[in-house]
Write a structure and sequence with these properties.
Elements lengths: L11 H11 L5 E13 L2 E13 L4 E6 L3 H7 L4 H4 L4 E9 L13 E7 L2 H4 L10 E7 L11 H24 L3 H4 L4
Parallel strand pairs: 3-4, 4-5
Antiparallel strand pairs: 1-2, 2-3, 5-6
Length: 185
């Protein structure tokens, strides 16, 4: 029996999961929700990215997740395009395949599409790809600069991840009933 299936709706969570599986963690540092305060022309700015991928050599690529054309258009008006730190050497939009590559996307920005895996691979859904989505390089980003990420910035990101981990862990433990949480095995 043949049934017509429409493509699945891809949301930000599925795009995030596809990025986490796509990036080789042995060769790159992947920082989710990366933010850092920095000086810009005598003012303190804050840089925030959905993900920053730092290579073993110390170069950073910002990965920006967009799931709608409206959200994508709005992104171009953000101040990051004026005050992006010099150590962001590449910039990539990671979007559902259905969005294509609109005319308004800057030429220097790379594009990764997230799409359902081809049918011939759908039968194998092992632990690596539980949702059946993959990332495909559509357009490579231009090199914006050659400055490496300062060690202090990476240290700040590590510290932020450490605190975020413990905040989330304590919040989860609070959801476990006390009589179970404090039982000694």
């Amino acid at each position: 029996m043949s049934e017509s299936r429409k493509p699945p709706e891809i949301n930000a969570g599925l795009v995030d999961a596809a990025i986490r599986r796509h990036v080789d963690h042995r060769a790159n540092l992947l920082i989710p929700e990366a933010s850092i305060r920095y000086g810009l022309g005598g003012k303190i700015g804050e840089y925030r990215a959905d993900f920053v991928m730092v290579t073993r050599a110390g170069y950073a690529t910002e990965l920006e997740v967009k799931v709608s054309l409206g959200d994508w258009r709005k992104d171009l008006s953000k101040p990051k395009w004026v005050g992006m730190p010099a150590w962001i050497t590449r910039f990539v939009y990671v979007v559902p395949e259905q969005l294509g590559i609109p005319q308004f996307v800057p030429e220097h920005a790379g594009i990764w599409h997230v799409r359902p895996r081809p049918p011939q691979y759908a039968a194998w859904e092992g632990p690596c790809r539980p949702d059946g989505f993959e990332v495909v390089l559509v357009r490579a980003p231009h090199v914006l600069g050659r400055e490496k990420v300062p060690a202090a910035v990476i240290g700040t990101w590590h510290k932020n991840l450490y605190y975020r981990f413990w905040d989330q862990r304590m919040a989860l433990e609070q959801r476990i009933p006390r009589h179970i949480r404090e039982t000694v095995a």
